[in-house]
Amino acid sequence: MKIFAYSKWDAVAVTAGVLHFAYVVTFFFIFPYAPWWVLICMGCLYSVSVSWNINGVSHNLIHNPFFKSRLLNRLFSIMESVTLGISQTFYKYVHHRHHLGNSDRPDEHGNTYDWISIYRHGRDGKAENPRQDKIAIPNGGVGDRRKIERRLEIRQTFRQPEEVRSS
Q1: In whole angstroms, what is the distance from residue 112 CA to residue 120 CA?
Q2: Does an H or E element contain 121, and which?
């Protein structure tokens, strides 16, 4: 019987998520008894692990559920919500909405489809805080800002139907 929906390598992400959950449970139970220096070390490790869990395990889960079984995906999602303190249902909704707009520019009313668009609070059609000519692009490389802005302009054109923009 096949457990994973896409690849046996999903077991790595699932194991990392389960280990992170076990770490949080351990942290909870030893908190009243552990010396302060252990708690500080565990707190620092927890803060780093939240980042890799959200950006790795949780992010992959909301795009491509790990398991064939809807029940297992739901249980894993609940476990992730408890571990991270962030509802995975809410994270999925906000994150997928972000992908729909994909950092779009404001329309004529100053609204963006993507709530976390870097242009949402910018001025004069520029990003909120452009610090340099080169910016990171999703595939991990660095790209020329003008080329990326041109791509965003093209996406903006095909973004959504007119009736959606006006609402």
Answers
A1: 6
A2: none
Domain finish residue from 33, 68, 92: 92
pLDDT of residue 140: 46
Task: Reply yes or no on whether the pLDDT at 11 is more than 50.
Answer: yes
Among the residue ranges 14-23, 47-56, 136-145, the one predicted with the least confidence is: 136-145
Instruction: Give the pTM.
Output: 0.61
What does the alpha-carbon distance between residue 81 and residue 105 come to, in Å, rounded to a whole number?
Answer: 31
Contact between residue 19 and residue 83 where contact means Cβ atoms under 8 Å apart: no
| Residues 13, 18, 20: CA angle, nearest 5 degrees | 95
Q: Which amino acid is at 152?
A: L
d(C-alpha 14, C-alpha 61), whole Å? 9
* Whether residues 79 and 106 fall in one domain: no
Domain of 78 in residue numbering reads as: 10-92
- Counted residue by residue, the chain has a size of 167
- What pLDDT, on a 0 to 100 scale, did the predictor assign at position 41? 95
Structural domain ending residue among the three candidates 92, 123, 158 = 92
Give domain status of residue 4, yes or no: no
Strand, coil or helix: what is 159? coil
Of 131, 129, 21, residue with least CA distance to 75: 21
